[in-house]
Specification:
The protein is mostly beta strands. The protein is built from 1 helix and 11 strands; from the N terminus they run H-E-E-E-E-E-E-E-E-E-E-E.
């Protein structure tokens, strides 16, 4: 079952880029956050490539982008689905916009509402996020690269 969750995470964590005939190349990696004991009894946080993942594991997703074209790229938007087996827990910079309905509507989490069965609504939570989107504000010169990071917890 857990190997299936990992496979689902790897397959669904593939980002997309919104540019016609895009010169932007994307890749992503998933890491498990682990506490590693050091000499002297202290612990430090390390990121490891996951061999197996279990409910409650903290994951770090790194999305790398690079302009492989020969021209400057402007208006780059990177969209990433959150795997169903993962509860979104934030990004490294907080500049993303999110969707809580599979990518139909977008906004900042604090402004979104989730409809309840009784007809009322509640504020959206990080665990409601289904997709994240980053708009890269600066122009990307040919050959330039960067990375976007988000975190999640295995459900």
């Amino acid at each position: 079952r857990f190997a299936h969750i990992f496979s689902a995470c790897a397959a669904l964590a593939l980002p997309g880029v919104a540019i016609a005939a895009s010169p932007i190349q994307l890749s992503s990696d998933i890491y498990v956050e682990k506490l590693q004991k050091q000499d002297g009894g202290k612990s430090s946080v390390v990121l490891e490539a996951p061999k197996t993942i279990l409910p409650g594991d903290q994951l770090v997703f790194v999305v790398r982008y690079k302009n492989v074209g020969s021209q400057v790229a402007n208006g780059v938007t990177v969209t990433n689905p959150i795997p169903r087996a993962i509860a979104f827990s934030g990004t490294s910079d907080g500049t993303e916009i999110v969707s809580i309905d599979g990518g139909k509507n977008w906004g900042h989490l604090g402004q979104m509402r989730v409809a309840k069965e009784d007809g009322t609504s509640r504020s959206a939570l990080m665990t409601d996020v289904t997709h994240i989107k980053w708009k890269i504000d600066q122009s990307l010169a040919a050959g330039s690269a960067g990375k976007l990071i988000f975190r999640g917890v295995v459900k």
